[in-house]
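Exercise 7.
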Amino acid sequence: MAALPVAFGQPRLQRIGFLGGTSPEAGTRRVAIDPFLQGLREHGHVEGENVEIRYAWAEGKPDRLPALAAQLLALDLDVLVASGPGPALVARKATTTVPVVALAVDNPVEMGLVADFARPGGNVTGISSYGGELVAKRLQLLKDLVPSVQRVAVLANPHTVVPAQLEAALQRFGRSLGLSLQLVEAPGPERFEAAFDEMKRERADGVLVLGDATFWTHRARLHELVERHRLPSVWGHRDYLEGGGLASYQSDFPALFRRGGALVARILKGARPADTPFEQATKLDLAINLKAAQAMGITVPPALLIAADHVIR
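Solution. The predicted structure, written as tokens, is:
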């Protein structure tokens, strides 16, 4: 996906670096890359014509991100795009001069990416895909789907979230929803089996899987475990629901990345991240996996089926 070389004597193409935590598989292209390129084109920036894009992928291994960010920044970038919370935090630490556009992150102020939504004040701006409030909505969704649920495990990657902050939020959500919530950490696939054993010991009767590049990369393995343990599960995006996942509720990522392309185009035309408000995704996407529900003997309330943006049958 590298751009065409620039012929001698031609003006230098503006250069975008794209730092991703996953891999450039078909799902990533459909959800993120293609919409991002579309957003760029709609604002006059075409890959290979007046911009070149260099991609770097951590392939679900967050420890690779600092070196990948350094490699991109060595290319004299005009903008560095960071896709997801992990890449955004790494990009923020890697440069204070190159404009950074962080896409699909949580609350950027709480993450320490910017000082303020309206006036970021540094070299970072971007688009938030919500944060803690979506966790509460997903928990309510799980409760709506399985009214008998009482103990819910929340599977998170400690490389992506701040466990202490998440624990505090889960205590609040648990009290308000009448649920017993258990935070289970899994930094990588080597920890998945133990994480589900921990859920079993704690008698979890449902699981919330937080969106994460590592979990996305190894989602098939997570689905095997969800199905083996027969745990009703709610996920971070509909593209996770390729196996036994019951439902997902998240920002419309294609719409977010398309808007991200427009935001990058604005930066390339001279806008300063410090003065460019950090945006928040405006459209949420509800998906219900009716096939998984039927396999688990779960009757999906008709109101949820009507409200769903996508129903997998």
